[in-house]
């Protein structure tokens, strides 16, 4: 129903609900706009000076406007308690179980997205500020930690398997960034000092999206959605959605390559 809004192509399981909501909000706002606009015009004509040469100091005496205001407050309470809070609980608070999902840590920095996979053991390796090196180790990953040996890190390249719940643990190194992927209908601020989880299920591979859009160069893009400094506009990450097998092949190769590179930095 939201084609008329020109939204970007949809590629996440929950996205249809969000699009519906956006569509309804536009319709309600249109009704409100027409209603208030009509009332405004009515008031201008009804209370024009030529018809009311003397001000009326008594004003309105009926209770109609009080009842109307109470009515509006009740409707808003129903929207908040009946819809907004349950939706938040279902969509934001209820994360999928981590053993059924891919958990990946995404850390914003000026001006890049650092991606960190825990590797086959599912445990994120220790990080240490002292090891942080913007060129070779932007997350300060301690490869001597056993849990870190199979970890995979990338810069600006997020690889995801299709049709699997993805939990992104969002962090920031210094200022507020915002992780936004329009096709997944997700957008969440990354706040320094906090780890904020968001989740979604990608439903369309990059390959398939290229066919659908007729654009052979199509890429899902992580756009930083908070003005975070002078390089904000070039803070672009890319998401590659693959089939489960393709993703596994990529992950296995990356684990091997990064473990070897860490074991022998001078090779
Ligand atoms: Cu940013």
Write the topology of this structure.
Blueprint: H1 15-46, H2 64-93, E1 102-109, E2 112-117, E3 152-155, E4 157-161, E5 166-172, E6 177-181, E7 186-190, E8 196-200, H3 206-213, E9 220-224, E10 236-242, H4 244-263
Parallel strand pairs: 1-5, 4-10
Antiparallel strand pairs: 1-2, 2-3, 5-8, 6-7, 6-9, 9-10
This protein binds copper (II) ion.
Description:
By secondary structure, the chain is an alpha+beta fold. The protein has four helices and ten strands, in the order H-H-E-E-E-E-E-E-E-E-H-E-E-H. It has helices at 15-46, 64-93, 206-213, 244-263; strands at residues 102-109, 112-117, 152-155, 157-161, 166-172, 177-181, 186-190, 196-200, 220-224, 236-242. Strands 3-2-1-5-8 form a five-stranded mixed sheet. Strand 1 (102-109) and strand 2 form a beta hairpin. The protein starts with 14 loop residues before the first helix and ends with a helix. Copper (II) ion binds next to loops.
Concise summary:
The protein has four helices and ten strands, in the order ααββββββββαββα. It has 267 residues and is of the alpha+beta class.
Number of strands: 10
Outline the low-pLDDT stretches.
none
**Order of strands, widest sheet:** 3-2-1-5-8
Q: What does the main sheet amount to?
A: 5 strands, mixed
Distance between the termini: 56 Å
| SSE class | alpha+beta
Please estimate the helix content. 25-40%
């Amino acid at each position: 129903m939201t084609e008329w809004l020109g939204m970007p192509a949809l590629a996440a399981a929950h996205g249809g609900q969000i699009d519906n909501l956006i569509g309804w909000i536009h319709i309600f706002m249109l009704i409100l706009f027409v209603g208030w606009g009509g009332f405004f015009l009515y008031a201008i004509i009804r209370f024009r000076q030529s018809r009311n040469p003397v001000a009326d100091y008594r004003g309105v005496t009926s209770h109609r406007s009080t009842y109307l205001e109470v009515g509006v407050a009740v409707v808003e309470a129903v929207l908040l308690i009946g819809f907004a809070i349950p939706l938040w609980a279902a969509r934001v608070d209820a994360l999928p179980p981590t053993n059924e999902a891919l958990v990946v840590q995404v850390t914003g920095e000026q001006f890049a997205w650092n991606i960190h996979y825990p590797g086959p053991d599912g445990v994120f390796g220790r990080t240490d500020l002292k090891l942080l090196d913007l060129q070779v180790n932007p997350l300060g990953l301690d490869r001597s930690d056993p849990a870190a040996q199979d970890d995979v890190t990338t810069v600006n390249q997020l690889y995801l398997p299709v049709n699997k719940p993805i939990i992104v643990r969002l962090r920031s190194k210094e200022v507020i960034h915002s992780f936004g992927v329009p096709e997944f209908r997700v957008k969440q601020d990354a706040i320094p000092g906090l780890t904020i989880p968001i989740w979604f299920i990608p439903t369309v591979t990059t390959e398939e999206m290229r066919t659908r859009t007729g654009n052979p160069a199509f890429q899902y893009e992580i756009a930083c959605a908070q003005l975070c400094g002078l390089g904000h506009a070039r803070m672009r990450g890319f998401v590659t959605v693959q089939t489960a097998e393709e993703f596994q092949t990529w992950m296995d190769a990356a684990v091997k390559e990064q473990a070897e590179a860490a074991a022998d930095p001078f090779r």
